[in-house]
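User: Hi! I'm working on a homework problem where we have to compare a predicted structure to a textbook description. Could you give me the structure for the chain below?
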Amino acid sequence: MDHATQRERAASLLALHTAAGPLVLPNAWDAGSAVVFADAGFDAIGTTSAGIAAAQGVPDGEQLSREEMLAVVERIAGAVDLPVTADIEAGYGDTPEEVFDTVAATVEAGAVGVNLEDGTGDPDRPLADVADHVAVIRAARDAADEADVPVVVNGRTDVFWLGVGEEADRLDHAVERANAYADAGADCLFVPGVTDTETIGALVDRLDAPLNVLGGPGAPPIATMADLGVARVSVGSVPMRATLGLLREIAVELREEGTYEAMADGVPYGELKELLAAAAERRDG
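Assistant: Happy to help. Predicted structure tokens:
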């Protein structure tokens, strides 16, 4: 994908964060799921690291190599005429220089946004030092500038997601971290694990950049998110896991009952063929 097209898509993605109502961002795990989301009329698509990893048969948490993850991102970005923002976990690197390289490679894969989390996967040190993640966000911004693509950087803090510290202190802790990421160049701030309206509203009021909330069962509906001032609602691996839930129902019915009812609402073969043919033409054209 040429950088002129990416610049247009990046500008469009950023503008969607300040439009009326939140950007509702479905998260794809392969080109086929991206095509289905695009056909449903969404304005942009995210990727899900957990979904991509699961589709390859491995757990989340940078168990796939950077090259394996970005190969899927490239297929997704090439399959749709929409801005694609990529979940690149903690950046696939131990240094800002390595994260710079990851973001540069993500742009080359066709994405125009990146999600960078401060969770470490280490139970003894669940969150990166603020200064270290600030350096990661700055490295992402530098890589975007060098590519001349205004990549939308989503700075994620996992304070609530991982339940770090005392519950009463988490709001202040998350705000401090997230605002440091905004100061470093993050365009949007992602605080997953928050579902109560009081906390969401407080985050909207206290953060220095638009708020991204993780949607799904137990979270407020989109209309409520809009009333609270949330700028972006993504759904992470939830659609992929729901798809696997349906697949498990199909498997149980097929194995135990020998019937096919759980498969009844599948996308018709001819319709799917047309959608994927159009995607292949975009990718190869």
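For your comparison, note the following. The beta strands are 23-25, 27-28, 45-47, 84-87, 113-117, 152-156, 188-190, 211-214, 232-234. DSSP finds eleven helices and nine strands in the chain. Good luck with the assignment!
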